Amino acid sequence: MKVWQKPGFWLPLVIVLVWGGAVLLIHQDTMRESAFVLLMAVGLASSLNILLGYTGYVSFGHIVFFGLGGYTGFYLLSEQGWPLFASAIGGGLLSAFIAGLVGLAVLRLRGAYFALATIGINEAARAFVSNFEPYGGATGMFVNFSAYQKYGGPGPALWTTFTFLWITTMVVLVASYLVKHSRFGLGLLAIREDEDAAMVMGVKAPKAKTITYVISAFFPGVIGTLYFFKNGNIEPGDAFQLHMSIEMLVMVMLGGMGTVMGPLVGAVGYQWLRGYLLTSPIFKDLHLAVAGAMLLVIILFVPAGLVGWVRNHVQRLQKVLE
Amino acid sequence: MALLQVNDIASGYEGVQILWGVNLKLEPGKLTTLVGSNGVGKTTLLKTVMGLMAPINGSVFFQGEDVTNLSAHARANAGMVLVPEGRQLFTEMTIYENLEMGAFSHRARANFKQNLDKVYELFPRLKERTRQKAGTLSGGEQQMVAVGRGLMAEPEVLMLDELSLGLSPLLALTLFEALTRLKKTGLTMLLVEQNVTMALAVSDYAYVLAEGKVHLEGPARELSKNDEVRRTYLGI
Amino acid sequence: MLDQLISSLTDGLLLGFVYGVAAMGLTLIWGVMSVINLAHGPVIAMGMFGTYLLFTHLGVNPYLAMVPVAGAGLIAGLVIYVIAVHRVINAPHLSSLLATFAVNMIIIGVGTAVFSTSPQNINYSLGSVEVGFLTFPASRLVGAFGAILVTACLYLFLYFTRAGKAIRAVANNRMAAELMGIPSSRVLALSFGLGTMMAAVAGGLIATFFPFTVLSGGPYELKSFVICVLGGLGHPLGALVGGLMLGGLEGLIPTFMPVSWVPVVEFGLFVLVLLVRPSGLFGAK
Amino acid sequence: MKRFGVGFVFVIALSFIVASLSAPPGATAAAKTVKPAAAAAAKTVTIGFTASKTGKFNVEATRQINGLHLWMEQVNGAGGIKLADGTVIKVADKFYDDESKKERVQELYTKLINTDKADFLISPYSSGLTDASAVIAQQYNRIMITAGAASDSTYKKGYTLVYQSYTPASRYLTGAVDILLKLAPKAKKIAIIHENDKFATDVVKALKIYAEKKGLNVALFEGYDSGTADFAPFINKIPADVDAIMGGGHFADTTTLARQLYEKKINTKMIALLVAPPEPKFAELGDACISVVGSSQWEPLAHFTKESAAKEGITWFGPTGEEFINAYKAKYKEDPSYHSAGGYVAGMILQDAIMKAGSTDTAKVKAALDAMNIMTFYGQLKFATGPKDHGLQLGHDMVYIQWQKDKQGKAMKQVVWPLAGATASAFVCPAR
Prior knowledge:
The complex is a heterotetramer of chains A (about 325), B (about 240), C (about 280) and D (about 425).
Chain A (H helix, E strand, L loop, with lengths): L6 H20 L2 H27 L7 H16 L5 H23 L4 H21 L9 E2 L11 H27 L2 H11 L1 H6 L4 H27 L1 E2 L1 H4 L2 H14 L5 H19 L7 H15 L3 H9 L9
Antiparallel strand pairs in A: 1-2
Chain B lengths: L3 E10 L2 E11 L4 E5 L6 H9 L6 E6 L2 E2 L5 H7 L1 E4 L11 H8 L3 H5 L1 H11 L1 H5 L10 H14 L4 E5 L7 H16 L3 E5 L3 H7 L2 E6 L2 E7 H4 L3 H8 L2
Parallel strand pairs in B: 3-8, 3-9, 6-7, 7-8
Antiparallel strand pairs in B: 1-2, 1-4, 4-5, 9-10
Chain C lengths: L1 H32 L6 H19 L3 H24 L7 H23 L12 E4 L2 E4 H23 L1 H11 L1 H6 L4 H24 L9 H15 L4 H21 L5 H15 L9
Antiparallel strand pairs in C: 1-2
């Protein structure tokens, strides 16, 4: 069967296609804003999953690529006057480049040591950017409002950004599926199960891990540029939030790591829950605590995540949910 | 009545069953040997008996009581003591502290002083270096600490997994001598050994494990004359 | 220049002792059960608020308040272990990391609901100490002494009590400990409790000289990571040394470059040490 | 199989669409203000904003909201704003807690505009949060009056609908240099320690230029992160013979800085800090607050009267200073600070513009704001209208206070600059 004939391939894709298309058709600002937040979460969680789910390496500071890419894209856009599309790709490429540089070194570390190193990299990057004058130092950068005129005023500019994000998210999902179902992906799974054994069997682990790291770093860079363009400004504190990084992990876990569908379900589920708790009169003050309790229950009792659980329990859906 | 009785134990790791119904009895005061080729499940059996692994099926009775559902440390407190394969010392702690940890259970603590003297008498070399870190000792000394630590627990039954593995013949001999001295004190022991000749020489009774089951059993002297055993394990 | 260097270094080192205590809790837990406790920061904040509440509402001297705060920290640790950690103790690292992070969210969430995220302050001054050209608040000196005291107590406990030795035995070889009749689960719970107790005490000490919010534990948690790696993960005394190193760096760096470069150097060094010597600068195993 | 799959997709996609409809901004929970038909004689306009009910801006933001609420109460109590065509406008508000964090501000303002149908916006407290919200206001074509947002940079981004009620940051501490030179004409060296955020950075950049122009040497110029609790590394870098220490940021961090300067027994002729000193709560520092100078947007003791307005030929609008203070004290049982006045004035600006425009239409109100030049108890209000700095406050000026001891030895603040409005003369920092 060709790739596009497999339900596991097109299911997540069509969902996002229909969803984003509907938002574009209905053309309503509030809905776009919410969909933007959700799609961004899906894109970030899915790109993290490419590393976490397929190689088992826990990157706690993955948000560093969102921050560095976002900063670079924003710089190209606001200081160098590049168009949005090119800036976003530029941001993504920088993230990928950095990942390639640090990847070879950092990916030698296993388990918790790797997790700690990624936290360190994120904090170091944040502190560095705060001191980096071309990127505006501690107070960051902004786009002059007139920049939106290029895209037909602020309204259309926001819609353009949304459309771009929508497409990016679909590309992430395709990449996620292709990595998982290639020979390359098989090697990654072997690394996840037992890295030493995989090396013995001939998997070139350092190279494979680094390539995966590069792929999973590219998309956050693109998404970062789009997000900060929408926001109109960028500051170190917003770009390198460790908390957001961990939220990405939670989304992947919630949906089921190592699946294509999992991060999609997890990201939407988590954001929806967070939104619900934030606005619910009962849980408003306790939203963080309630979310934490739910996360704990998932970790302790459903470690495979929602999609993983369904896959394990409903035979018929195994082919559909990848 | 047997001191330790293993009934129909089936056990294994995730997805791989190794033991398929093993029966075993240890008579009080006797030294019993378990013989079998590599990977047949000797260590798995000891781990299951000690409660480090949960059996798929079967039960373990100690002093007439069912201990199948007790944790390993509870079995140790009851007097079942295993000197594990690879010694498993507390490498960051001194020899003295290792022995002290051996006497962690309540019943062992009462006779700490006497037992310590006994161990030092059995292995005088340990007494000379009580403050040395266990991780810095030679292999033979480490094995002495391991056996000594097991004795500090005041065992009712002492199980020894691969006592002589990796030791020089001379050191192995020293340890086997220690075993015969312990046997004289009336201690019940279960020995798992790859040096079958030596093991059968000191044992009262022996079991041969093959394909996850007890293949042969009998008094050690008889088994050492058995043709199959001689061919397979004694290399004669 | 020299005056500045010395006074800056003094401040940094005094603070380093307290950093060390915070990191010691983290490193103890890691050493015994290979779990990185991401609820460490919120527990530090709980220590701050515990001291604050006892001082502000009951008028307890903040240093005396540390005794009940330590007790509460121990109990909190036991509870966290039993509920969140025990089930994932043998699972892959991701599970224990996320489980403790879930606890982090719960504590921060409840803390925010109760205290809001507004800054608080313990209004208790011991005045300033002047030695030659050096001037520093007395509370920092007391904090450093407190830190040394806590470290000494931990060492006496680990090396001279039965329970302490059991902790070291479990940390060293959990299976062997179990075989010797040591109830390893209970020892793990106790270690976790001690680790959070150290965090709570560190929080209490910090609260006597800095203002704080519910979220204030976060930076100290990050610093604790750095310290643990400098001193060698799993070595409590290494944590104190690492703490002093970090404090010293924080005193040293500003003498030569803008203060805002401190975190760049700190975390850069952290990643570098992880890569070159994951066992820590002094973690000669 | 295939058909089943197709249905499955649509069910899931549909549920996501529903999710994006109801997610983060939970539309269902929001109270809606229904706009009555245009022809009605009475109309309610909704003023939307976020408030830092928690977090580090809690102290300042609470005062600001108190001021705004007092204004609303007075307007509605007086029967609303009466327009020329007879329409009566009542004001209602809708606000959320932004937790002093920028990440939520944009989401909440989008929600205020689209879901809660806010007609006009007031900024959150602080330049950082305002900067984030201003983009949204401009993107959705809403007028925003900023309060507690002094940073100049916000008004240099090409916005046309954002109006500043505070004196811009660039004029915040320049007066302190004048005070210093008056107190100690031989002063040579100053040290600047500031929060690394938009507002404080804008303040100290202008301060540095001004100080150097006046012949002073800026011996130390360092920024600290917003959450900083330990200022020792900065204080240790202050040269021993410095004549003045200036800077700070917002209330929480600046208060800590002042305390640690005292604990470290730093000797200097003058300490001038941002935001915190004018707050009455600053007195809780005890001895550490004595002699600290602060710049204030407004002080109860400062006088702007109808007479002074007439003298300068500017129209007077709103209550007198006394009326405001009394009303505020009666409602909140505390003295108003300049943050309170700022919140109140933001409302007044909107009120005056709506009255002059005779409408609530965005374009008409904008025109009225562009043309505004009034005098109030808070001082003069006039906005820049050029393309480079539209909305920047031009009319208003700072006053400077210093904490001094009264006869009973109690700490109290006195206006010390400008000299014309001074209630006491400034003194040099005593030796510590």
